[in-house]
TrEMBL record:
Record-annotated PilZ domain positions: 311-417
Organism whose genome encodes this protein: Gordoniibacillus kamchatkensis
InterPro entries: 3-OH-isobutyrate_DH-rel_CS, 6-PGluconate_DH-like_C_sf, 6PGD_dom2, 6PGDH_NADP-bd, HIBADH-like_NADP-bd, NAD(P)-bd_dom_sf, PilZ_domain
Family of this protein: Belongs to the HIBADH-related family.
Stretches assigned to the 3-hydroxyisobutyrate dehydrogenase-like NAD-binding domain: 165-284
Protein name, UniProt field: Tartronate semialdehyde reductase
Superkingdom in the source lineage: Bacteria
Domain 6-phosphogluconate dehydrogenase NADP-binding: 3-162
């Protein structure tokens, strides 16, 4: 059995340290928040007051920290790991950090005759608890071979990827795919939900088809059950995507899907979901489609009858009386237009458009620019007239809205809601 120092007892580190204790190793733990060590102490671990004390006398020191800055602080800060190391020890860093940081620590520790492996993991909290993590390892191959059995006490697979930094490169490429796959799942669910489909049945189709992925298995049920408890946090997913984006810049590699995924996760962070599971970014999609992505509340064996088109339109309409100004443009010749402004009233709102009343006659398929009252703080919105109804003293026009950004759609819905 080995003497092990374990530094960083967060979502992943704590269950990993617990599994080492269960395997019979002598484990000394350190965490900046000391209370996180209490459960491990109850299992037989010793608690160290500093990283240096956790590292002192250990055969192997594990680190599992949230980012580059935290890792470097643990090594170089006051009473850091460097103050407790001695020749012949090995440090295994399981954090997801930049390859440059991994190589820097490898070179620094080599100067003290200490081996360093960058060995990030995949599998998130359930795999850490079940000791089924997958390790991707960079550094000296002989050192990896000597410690292979230790890796297999914590995981189901450990692969040597190459020299120092290779484990970190592997993890960032892997997590770029994780983030993209997670958003692919959410976009598919959003599309299906907006179309009125049962999202549980949609997931069954996905699991049986070519769109299946590990993210479907792990995050699909969490989304439908509204369980955003943290397995791998949104803020850490974003951190990994930004690190991967930095690599694509260094390599001059276009990566449109990676950059797009990072942007969506940044939105999720800005909305306050950083500490939740990465699946919480689905809230962004729910805002855009105007409804929650969740299990159907009606019995799947007794679905509600589908109403006729006319009944559905009537059921979904909300009656309003909001004064508008409409800009009407007409084609003249060779690209020239003439236009005029007319008064109108917003009468009804449906899911895909508006019904506007005006005394001014317009024709089907004409385009109008709709100007809302100043209080709405909305930009001009373009609509195409798809239906014309003649009523006493006025015409009513069904307008299909076009080119609305998600942000403007949300603002429009909020304004309309304030008038109901």
């Amino acid at each position: 059995m080995k003497r092990i120092g374990f530094i960083g007892l967060g979502t992943m580190g704590k269950p990993m340290a617990a599994n080492l204790l269960k395997k019979g190793h002598s484990v000394t733990v350190y965490n900046r928040t000391a209370g996180k060590a209490d459960e491990l102490v109850a299992l037989g671990a010793e608690s160290a007051r500093t990283p240096a004390l956790a590292a002192r006398g250990a055969d192997v020191v594990f680190t599992m920290l949230s980012n580059d800055a935290a890792l470097l602080e643990v090594f170089h800060g006051e009473n850091g790991i460097m103050a407790g190391l001695a020749p012949g020890q090995t440090v295994i860093d399981c954090s997801t950090v930049s390859p440059a940081t991994s190589r820097r620590l490898y070179e620094e520790l080599a100067g003290h005759y200490v081996d360093f492996l960058d060995a990030p993991v995949t599998g998130s909290k359930p795999a850490a608890e079940a000791a089924t993590l997958v390790f991707m390892v960079g550094g000296n191959e002989d050192v990896f071979g000597d410690l292979f059995s230790l890796f297999m006490e914590l995981g189901s697979k450990a692969l040597y990827m190459g020299p120092s930094g290779s484990g970190s490169y592997t993890k960032l490429a892997h997590n770029a795919m994780v983030g993209i796959n997670a958003l692919a799942l959410m976009e598919g669910l959003a599309l299906a939900t907006k179309a009125g489909l049962n999202p549980e049945r949609f997931l069954e189709i996905v699991k049986a088809g070519s769109a299946y992925s590990r993210q479907v298995e792990l995050k699909g049920p969490k989304i439908l059950e509204r369980d955003f408890s943290n397995q791998f946090s949104l803020k850490l997913m974003l951190k990994d995507l930004l690190l991967a984006s930095d690599l694509t810049s260094q390599f001059q590699l276009p990566a449109p899907m990676l950059h797009g995924a990072a942007t969506v996760f940044q939105m999720g962070l800005a909305k306050g979901y950083g500490e939740d599971d990465l699946s919480a970014v689905v809230h962004c999609y729910e805002e855009w489609i105007g409804r929650a992505i969740e299990k159907f509340t009606v019995s799947s064996s007794s679905p509600e009858p589908i109403p006729s088109g006319r009944d559905r339109r009537r059921a979904q309409r909300v009656h309003l009386d909001i004064q508008l100004l409409l800009s009407v443009y007409q084609w003249e010749q060779e690209g020239a237009f003439t236009g005029q402004n007319i008064e109108g009233t917003l009468r009804d709102l449906s899911e895909n458009g508006l019904q506007i009343a005006s005394k001014f006659p317009l024709a089907q398929d004409m385009f109008v620019v709709i100007h809302f009252p100043k209080e709405a703080d909305l930009p001009p919105i373009t609509g195409r007239i798809i239906r014309v109804e003649t009523h006493p003293n006025e015409f009513r026009y069904g307008c299909l809205l076009s080119g609305l950004s998600p942000y403007v759609r949300v603002k429009l819905e909020q304004y309309i809601q304030s008038k109901i």
